[in-house]
Amino acid sequence: MSVKTSIRDFAKDWLLPPMVLYFFSNWVFGKRHFSTLCELERKSRRLFVLATGPSFNEDLKRHKEAIQTEDSVAMNMFATSPLFSELQPRLYLLVDPLWFKSSEFMEKSTFKDNYINLRNALLTRVTWEMNLIVPDSARKSDFVKSVSANANIKIFYYNCRVGMKGRLGLWLMKKGWTTPPAQTVANVAAGLGVVTGYEEVWMLGIDTSMHTMMRVDQKTNEMYLENQHFYGTKKEKGYRGADKSQAYTVAFFLGCAVKMFEGYERVRELADYCGVKVINASSFSWVDSLERPNT
User: Fold this and answer.
1) Which of 206, 177, 201, 199 is nearest to 191 (CA)?
2) pLDDT-based confidence at 4, cuts 50/70/90?
3) Helices 3-14 and 166-174, axial angle in degrees (round to 10)
4) Residues 130, 104, 82: CA angle, nearest 5 degrees
5) pTM here?
6) Is the separation of the CB atoms in 84 and 125 below 8 Å?
7) Sheet holding 214-216: strands in order across?
């Protein structure tokens, strides 16, 4: 690395002006909250991240007993799966802002069925102590108010402020003042596992193969996905937002895929910075930036 590059990186990461600009743009002119994850009690030294890729079925054969005895975090629609009651994850993570839109918005939304199904699953199926982790911006949302009716669910918040690059960004994430990479919920789950104090974070079902599921209808010229999860495959179109105003294009979706992989690279940087191991224990995965298990 040249002297010029070193000086530039130091200025970008550590000097006062970038710090001042960051706090003014993201904090002073917004609603400032702090993460409550420091209050979360860990039950094990290792955290399993239960992602929903097709490989999770195979991963479960090898790690089921460990998942049932150690801390694990599920996400998105996992609570509607038959495995949810069997595995009883201690943590559950929701990231997408759509979950926390108003009930009035949901009545007209294409996301309505998912919203209702997940809400009902959390209300009726969680019979063990479970910690629901959501962005700080969701504090007064209808969804959080609704699922709080289940006394077995305790709500925790993480700071969803956008992070910075460089070592300053890693320091802010470690302190819980910014969010880990947020392109996918699995990115966030891994990052939060690191900053919450687990010694190891084991990722299961992170196939990250969505780019291989892309299809283009040769008659209508519309892109769609043969979306595969461990619980089945579904043909569906993707949209930006919940009102179907803008369908995904190939360029847009591939751009999102790039950000997903970059997110895992940032998670690896965060893990190294915090002295935590993030292990990609998926039986199949495109993620090449995380360590693989020794056995």
Assistant:
1) 201
2) low
3) 30
4) 35
5) 0.82
6) yes
7) 214-216, 223-229, 232-236
Side-chain-side CA neighbours of 48 within 13 Å: the count stands at: 25
Answer yes or no: are the C-beta atoms of 155 and 137 closer than 8 Å.
no
CA distances from 16 to 19, 23, 72 (A): 5, 11, 39
φ, ψ at 266 (rounded to 5°): -70, -35
In DSSP notation, 170-226 reads HHHHHTTSSPPP-SSHHHHHHHHHHHTT-SEEEEES----GGGGEEE-TTT--EEEE
Type and span of the H or E element at 65: helix 56-69
Q: Per-residue pLDDT tens for 153-192?
A: 999 999 888 777 888 889 988 988 888 887 789 999 999 9
Exposed, middle or buried: residue 166 (CB in 10 Å: 0-12, 13-18, 19+)?
Answer: middle
- 3 state SS of 92: strand
What are 28's two structure tokens? 């002073």
Q: What is the pLDDT of residues 230-275, one digit of tens each?
A: 666 677 776 665 555 677 788 888 888 888 899 999 999 999 999 9
Of the candidates 58, 90, 96, 62, the one whose C-alpha atom is nearest the C-alpha of residue 77 is: 96
Q: Is 126 helix (H, G, I), strand (E, B) or coil?
A: coil
Q: Is the pLDDT of residue 194 over 90?
A: yes
Q: Which residues pair with 221 in a beta bridge?
A: none
Q: Quick one: pLDDT at residue 239?
A: 65
